[in-house]
Amino acid sequence: MGSSDSKLNFRKAVIQLTTKTQPVEATDDAFWDQFWADASTTVQDVFALVPAAEIRAVREESPSNLATLCYKAVEKLVQAAESGCPSERERQMVLNCTRILTRILPYIFEDQDWRGFFWSTVPGAGRAGMNELDEDDGARPLAELLLLAVADLLFCPEFTVHSHKRGPDSVESMQSIDSCEYIWEAGVGFAQSPPLNYIHDLNRTELLRLLLTCFSEAMYLPPSSDNTVLNPWVTFFCSAENRHALPLFTSLLNVVCAYDPVGYGIPYNHLLFSDYREQLVEQAVQILIVTLEHDAGAPHPPASTSSIDEQEPTGPENLFVNYLSRIHREEDFDFVLKGLARLLTNPLTQTYLPNSTKKIQFHQELLVLFWKLCDFNKKFLFFVLKSSDVLDVLVPILYYLNDARADQSRVGLMHIGVFILLLLSGERNFGVRLNKPYSLHVPMDIPVFTGTHADLLIVVFHKIITTGHQRLQPLYDCLLTIIVNVSPYLKSLSMVAANKLLHLLEAFSTSWYLFSTAQNHHLVFFLLETFNNIIQYQFDGNCNLVYAIIRKRNVFHQLANLPSDPASIQKALQKKKKSPDLISRTNSQETVSMEGSHPAVPAEPGTLKTSLVAIPGIDKLTEKSQVSEDGTMVSVPKTDSPQPVHSDQSAAAGTSDTESNSGRDNEDVFYTEAEMQRRRLSSASSVSSWVPTPDWVLSWKSKLPLQTIMRLLQVLVPQVEKICIDKGLTDESEILKFLQHGTLVGLLPVPHPILIRKYQANAGTAMWFRTYMWGVVYLRNVDPPIWYDTDVRLFEIQRM
C-alpha cells in the first residue's frame, strides 16, 4: 500500500468517526488499525489529517467513538511497553498512537465534562473487547496506564535506548530492565555517554511531546491562588509509582546540561545537518520545568546540613523535586552550572560570530530551570555564588534584559531575569563577585564604560528604567532592591555608573513624580539607602560616586526642602499633566553605544504573547534581614520597618498605578493583564481615588535618610570649592585625586546596620511562575501547534 493510499485510509477513518451514527465497536480492529498502521505518517500529517473541528464534532456527537479511540491508542502503547516493540512495525505503531493522543488530548482537556475521562477506571463501561487490560490493571485509570507505558517506552532497547544484549539469543525483558543502566547521557550520577543515535533522539522527542501534552491540563484551568490544586498527571508521573522516575529525571537533566549547540567544536557545522538533539533538549527542558512544581502545602526541602536521607517526606512526594533538591556533589553542580551557562551564553556568541553556531531559542526555559535549581537546592545556590562562575549566568541575563526592554511581548522574560537577580542579590557573595572587572565585549546597546560587573548591572538597569516600555514599571522596585542589596559590597563604581545612579535619583525625586502615586517615594528611599551603604561601608574606593553626589548636591537639598503645602502639591500635579512621560530621558549624558550592538526594538506587529498574572508588591516578594557584625543574617520582624516607609493603608488603598498588588489587594487576587489595563484606565479616568495630602507627604519626608549625605556634603563641599579656587581648577581628575585620599572617619553618623531584602516564595509568585512557564511552552510548540486555537484558560493569547 503506497503512502498516499494509507494517508487516504487514515483520513477516511477520521471522517467515519464523525459520521457513523452507530458507535464503532472496540473489537472492530480492522477499523481502529487504520489510525496507526501507516508507516510513513509524521506528526505534522496527523495534525493536518485530524482537524480541530472534527475532534470537537466527535466529542459532542459521537462521544463513545472518541472514548474508544483514546482507549485503543493507550492499549496499543501498553502492549508495546510490555513486549518491548521488537519489530519495526510495532515501533511505527507506537509513534502513530503517540501522535494521535498528542493531537486529541488538548480537546479532552478543554471540555470540563471530559477532563475526568482519563482518570476513570472503566472506560465506556462493559463494552465488549475491553477486557484485555482488566486482569491486572483493571483498577488503574487510563491516565496512569498511559503514563506508565510512556515511561517504559522511554527506556526501550533499540527504540529509545541502545541495547545491552550480550548475544543474538539473549532477550532484554522490559519488566526486568534496570533503567538506571540506560540513562541517556553522562553527567549527574552517570559516567558513560552512550553513542549518539538520531533515531533514538527522534523517538524520545515524540514520547516527551506526548508527556508534555498530558501535563498541559494545567493550561485549561483558570489562574487561582489555591496552591493545593495539584496537576494529577504530574503528581502521578513523578511519584514512586513510576519506577523510572530517577533515571528519567537524570536523563532529562543530563541531556540538557551536556548539550553543546556548537556542533562538537566545528563552527558552521549546524548548517550541514539537522540537529535532532536540539529538539530533544527543548522537549526535555520543558518537561523539567513543568514537572518541578512544588507539592502544595509541602515546605521547601530544609536547607539543613544533615545528610540527604534524613528529610521527612511531606505530602505526596514529587520525586523530581526530591532528586533535584538532593544533588550535592561538587562535580555535579559544576556540570549543571557550566552547561546552563554555556547554553545561556549561546545567543550572545551569535552576535559577534554570526551563524558560526546554531542559535538556540530556549533561553526562557533555561532561566526557569536555573531558578528552580536555586530555589529547590540551596547548596546549588551557594555553589553558584562560591566562585566567579555566577558571572557567566549574570552577563547573559543582563544581555536578555537589555535586549528585551522595548518589547512588550517579552515582558515575562524581563520578570524572570529580574527575579533571578533578586534571589541572588539576597546573598552577600553575589555583591562581592560583582567587583570582578568586566572585560567581555558582548555587544549591547549601552554606553561604553570601563569597570566591573557591578557597573554593567547598574548601567543596564538604568537603561531599562529610562528607555524600557511603560509595562516594566512594576519592576522598578525589584531593580532598585537588587542595587540596594549589593551596594554594601561594591568597592569602586565607575564614573559612568555613578552618574547613572544620580540621574535616577534626579528623575525619581521630582515633586510631580513623587506626588503622582502612593508608592513612588519608595524608589527614592532605595536610592538613598544605596548611597548610604556605599558611603558608610565602601567610602575608600568610591571617589567617583562621592564626586557625582557633590556635583548633584542640589538634588539632595531639594529633597530635604520638598514643599508639602496643598498649593505646591497642586502645582506639581499640574506639571505631571504636561509631561506624561515617566522619566526625563534627557540630561542622562547618553554616550556612544558599544560597537556592533543593535538597539532594543519593540515586538514585530502580529507577534503572539501570553498574558501574565500580576506580581506581588516588593514587600510581599521579600523579607528583610539584618547583617550582623560577623556577617550572618538575622531576619527583621515585619512591624518596625521604617524603610522604605509604607504609607498608611488608607493612602495606599485606592491606587492602581502599577501591576504589583502591593499593599492594597488581598494577595490572593489575580488579575490578567487585560484586567489590570482596564483598572489602570478606569483609575486614570476617575483621576484615581487616591490624592496626595500634606500629612501624607510629611509622613515619609520626615523619614528620608539624608543625614549621612548631608554630613558628607557639609564636610567635603567647602574643601572641594577651596581647591578649585586655590588652584583655579576646572579639571575633575585633581578633585578625584583629592577625594580618593580624603577620609570621613569620625565625621559621619554611626553606621546603620546593613539591611538585605531577601526573596521569599509566596502564593503570588508561584502562580506567576505557573502562568509564565506554561505561556512559554504554549508559544514555543508551534510545529506541530499542539494547543493553538484550543480554549486555554490559564492565560490569554494576545496579538501585538
From TrEMBL:
GO cellular component: Golgi medial cisterna; Golgi trans cisterna; membrane
Organism domain of life: Eukaryota
Residue segments, region Disordered: 575-605, 624-665
Polar residues bias locations: 584-594, 638-661
Pfam families, A to Z: Hid1
InterPro entries registered for this protein in UniProt: Hid-1/Ecm30
PANTHER family hit by this protein: PROTEIN HID1
Entry protein name: HID1 domain containing
Organism: Oryzias melastigma (Marine medaka)
Lineage: Eukaryota, Metazoa, Chordata, Craniata, Vertebrata
